[in-house]
Design brief:
A two-stranded antiparallel ribbon has the order 1-2. It is built from nine helices and two strands. The chain is mainly α. It is globular, with a radius of gyration of 19 Å.
Length: 239
């Protein structure tokens, strides 16, 4: 069966070289965390954060997804996320309105899809290598960003399910401040460290916090065990 025209066009989009693609993606993910932290408010810092986030999303798409079957739905999710996010910038939409909720829902879906593909490729690989290790690290960081979007959705729908320290309270009404704050919170969830400046006090925040902690624990355990198994298999073959 011949591919559809949109599928063929998406499939022709460039794919970064396998050897270096996760190096590039990890560098952008770490840079995005730094830029997002400093782009707390509107104006040029916020615009820079939005531009970089868009570049990062496109890079995730180019690095992670391959073939029309994967790329077409991922491209649709990416396009919808970018359009909703930038529509809010150009229309002056509310930082707490429907556009904010739609953006975080779409962004989380796109990021979770990327994490699923990264894990699938990891378990399909015949041997451990630096590229796979970097890919697993990228998957963890992307998942933290996805949890951040889900927590923002929970906050927008049920703001009283979280308790905030007064020192971070001023960040919540702002689009970029909220993104930075919940990005920080999602990493503390996944690593099960926990800090008193953001506290889940009732559902859905408490439910998400439990699932995020379980995800962080099992992601690390499963990925490490996979690498150990691959390394042991390679050692037996050499012996």
């Amino acid at each position: 069966m011949t591919a559809t025209v949109p599928g063929a066009l998406v499939e022709r989009l460039p794919v970064l070289p396998r050897r270096h693609k996760y190096k590039v993606l990890l560098a952008l993910l770490l840079a995005s965390i730094v830029i997002q932290t400093y782009g707390l408010h509107a104006g040029f810092p916020g615009l820079l954060s939005d531009v970089f986030r868009t570049v990062l999303s496109v890079t995730i798409f180019l690095v992670v997804f391959r073939g029309a079957r994967e790329r077409v739905p991922a491209a649709l999710l990416l396009l919808a996320t970018v359009v909703v996010g930038w529509t809010r910038n150009f229309t002056g939409g509310s930082d707490d309105g429907g556009l904010a909720l739609a953006f975080n829902v779409l962004s989380s879906l796109f990021l979770w899809t990327a994490v699923a593909v990264i894990l699938r490729d990891l378990f399909r690989t015949p041997e451990a290598g630096a590229g796979n290790v970097l890919g697993a690290i990228c998957g963890y960081v992307i998942a933290a960003d996805a949890w951040s979007g889900m927590n923002i959705c929970a906050y927008l729908l049920a703001p009283h399910s979280f308790a905030f320290d007064p020192s971070v309270q001023e960040m919540l009404p702002h689009w970029h401040g909220r993104l930075a704050l919940f990005c920080y919170y999602s990493f503390s969830q996944n690593t099960m460290l926990g800090y008193s400046d953001i506290t889940p006090v009732r559902a859905p925040a408490t439910t998400l916090s439990l699932f995020a902690a379980l995800f962080g624990m099992f992601y690390t355990a499963i990925v490490v065990s996979q690498f150990v198994g691959l390394a042991q298999g390679a050692t037996r073959e050499v012996a």
